């Protein structure tokens, strides 16, 4: 899992030269930091649904394993849990725009997918007026193989660009299992610690098509920081250096008419809690 580790600090210095973008580049999807956020240990993004309105409370999306309370257990799902987490929003040029504060976790899990949806204590309109930050729109379906993509890290202020290689039926890492994981075509998206929670952005539409969460660092089999792929027949494959993201479009399958998350809605693809706190 791509959490920050202190030994990667030198890498950050080495990659800062990649951050500059021209005005022409900034106009292209996935080439600037529009909607991007940073946490104390991870990356994140300010997001909206296609149906969101400016008066809705704003949402911030990151990985479940970036939760301020530590890793979530398999089967554990957080629903409407209070939070006061401070979140830094960035300007398109990656400089600091300002902070927002979460007031609750609407949904969080490391089961099936790996994400937390924070609701912050102000609206999209308020954030636009106060900080001039606009959100990314969540795509309503997962990406196709070969689709152009960018992993945009607010923690490192770095953009990785590549394409989708494949959708993996099952990805296992330690005690956790994720379904329909997005595998990145290398080279280009050799993500590092601190990139956890970065949005996977379509370089065609600019929509968020997934969320970056892990990669196989040492070539080990199905251990923490060394996920393994499991195909439909149960065959296990390990590829050192492979990097992956998780599905976010499943949120739409659980949305109500008022844009709240209902895990009991017919057709909801998000996991229901077997452990809850």
TrEMBL record:
Top-level taxon in the UniProt lineage: Bacteria
Keywords: Signal
InterPro entries: Peptidase_S1_PA, Peptidase_S1_PA_chymotrypsin
Signal sequence region: 1-26
Pfam families the record matches: Trypsin_2 (PF13365)
Name of the protein in its database record: Trypsin-like peptidase domain-containing protein
The organism's taxonomic lineage, starting at the top: Bacteria, Bacillati, Actinomycetota, Actinomycetes, Propionibacteriales
């Amino acid at each position: 899992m791509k959490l920050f580790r202190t030994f990667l600090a030198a890498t950050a210095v080495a990659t800062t030269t990649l951050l500059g973008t021209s005005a022409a580049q900034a106009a292209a999807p996935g080439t600037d930091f529009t909607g991007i956020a940073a946490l104390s240990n991870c990356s994140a993004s300010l997001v909206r649904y296609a149906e969101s309105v400016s008066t809705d409370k704003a949402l911030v999306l990151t990985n479940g394993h970036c939760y301020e309370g530590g890793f979530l257990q398999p089967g554990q799902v957080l629903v409407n849990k209070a939070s006061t987490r401070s979140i830094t929003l960035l300007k398109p040029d990656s400089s600091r725009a300002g902070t927002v504060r979460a007031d609750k976790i609407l949904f969080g899990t490391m089961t099936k997918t790996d994400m937390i949806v924070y609701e912050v204590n102000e609206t999209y309109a308020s954030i636009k007026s106060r900080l001039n930050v606009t959100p990314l729109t969540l795509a309503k379906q997962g990406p196709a193989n070969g689709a152009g993509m960018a992993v945009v890290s607010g923690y490192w202020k770095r953009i990785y660009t590549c394409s989708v290689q494949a959708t993996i039926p099952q990805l296992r890492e330690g005690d956790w299992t994720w379904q329909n994981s997005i595998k990145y075509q290398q080279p280009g998206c050799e993500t590092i610690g601190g990139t956890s929670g970065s949005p996977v952005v379509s370089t065609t539409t600019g929509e968020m098509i997934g969320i970056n969460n892990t990669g196989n660092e040492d070539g080990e089999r199905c251990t923490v920081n060394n996920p393994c792929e499991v195909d439909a027949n149960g065959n296990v494959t390990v590829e050192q250096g492979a990097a992956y993201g998780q599905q976010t479009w499943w949120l739409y399958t659980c949305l109500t008419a008022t844009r709240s998350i209902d895990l009991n809605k017919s057709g909801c693809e998000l996991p229901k809690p077997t452990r809850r706190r």
